[in-house]
Design brief:
The protein is mostly helical and about 325 residues long. Helices cover about 65% and strands about 0% of the residues.
């Protein structure tokens, strides 16, 4: 049955009190193991860190496995508290209202015990990597707390909802880098590119959600920030984040590997593709963890990866003269 936007707090609480016995599978579900694919954002950081440190691949395999496991557990801790604290709001979403937390199949003691276990296990594994990785893990955990918990709850604040959630992307990049290069940080240009790239993905997700709900009042009940958004502002912010990400990525590429600038038409095409996807009905952009099922998009990403890999190893000397020419020389 559809949620009533005029429900009182008492009715909301009644709708989320346990209606059936809790199952272990329900607690596993709110940890969202299907979202662990997002932690693949660690790999580019690991790759860049290896290039700087020249560490042998064999020495990175075990720390990578442990680091990925730790990141998955900490991410799941953030997802767990997210679903529990959002249970009164998710009932206004056409799909999320079927979640275990909304339907009342969970109890608070079980959720908070799971949250504590995931934190301890995640940080425990992080300690097996290195000190820098532990600090990055703590930052990822704190950002999840600020995003979900009052009085901070940045997810309820317009634009901050996108920026505070997408900062997890450069954190993951740092975690990958720190596995291979624990004594320094990645260049600021690539961190900013990662941040704004993640903001672009989140803004398109918000746009797709807003269009799916289709009612501004109900959308505002589901997500507080939607009270100050509309389709135009969400689309405009998506374009801004895409341009900012492109700027900082361009700075990084020109500074460290000019040949990669030739991949920019494909990168721009990827941004355009994703925006178009966000405008589709019931868009896959609402569920980034399911993007791997988008065959054509994945083929495009594979093509981009191959092109960038080739440009990474093939030198094109004329580019250096072309892109570094000054006006006085001209």
């Amino acid at each position: 049955m559809a949620a009533n936007p005029n429900s009182t707090p008492l009715e909301i609480d009644a709708a989320t009190t346990p209606q059936s016995r809790s199952k272990l599978s329900d607690y596993v579900k709110i940890a969202r193991p299907d979202h662990w694919t997002k932690n693949l954002f660690i790999l580019p950081g690991l790759f860049l860190g290896k290039l700087v440190s020249h560490a042998p691949v064999s020495s990175l395999i075990l720390p990578l496995i442990i680091g990925m496991a730790a990141t998955c557990l900490i991410s799941s801790a953030n997802y767990t508290i997210n679903e529990w604290l959002d249970r009164h709001f998710d009932r206004f979403h056409p799909k999320k209202r079927s979640r275990p937390s909304v339907s009342g199949r969970l109890v608070a003691s079980g959720v908070y015990s799971e949250y504590a276990f995931l934190i301890v296990a995640g940080l425990g594994l992080s300690c097996l990597v290195n000190k820098g990785f532990v600090i990055a893990s703590l930052v990822l955990l704190v950002m999840g707390f600020l995003y979900n918990v009052k009085p901070f709850r940045t997810k309820d604040r317009v634009y901050m909802d996108v920026l505070s959630e997408s900062v997890n992307n450069p954190i993951r990049l740092c975690m990958g880098w720190l596995i291979a290069m624990p004594v320094s940080m990645p260049p600021s240009s690539i961190l900013l590119a990662y941040w704004f790239g993640g903001a672009f993905l989140m803004a398109v997700k918000r746009l797709a959600e807003y269009r799916t709900i289709g009612d501004k009042n109900v959308a505002g009940l589901y997500r507080q920030s939607f009270k100050k958004y509309n389709e135009k502002s969400l689309l405009a912010s998506s374009v801004f984040y895409a341009m900012a990400a492109s700027l900082f990525l361009g700075v990084f590429l020109v500074k460290y590997r000019i040949e990669l600038i030739l991949s920019f038409p494909l990168i721009a095409g990827l941004f355009s593709w994703y925006i178009r996807m966000g405008l589709d009905d019931d868009s896959a952009a609402q569920h980034p963890e399911k993007l791997l099922r988008e065959r054509n998009l994945m083929l495009y990403v594979l093509l981009l990866t191959v092109v960038m890999a080739i440009l990474f190893v093939v030198d094109i000397p004329p580019l250096y003269k072309l892109l570094r020419i000054t006006f006085s020389e001209l």
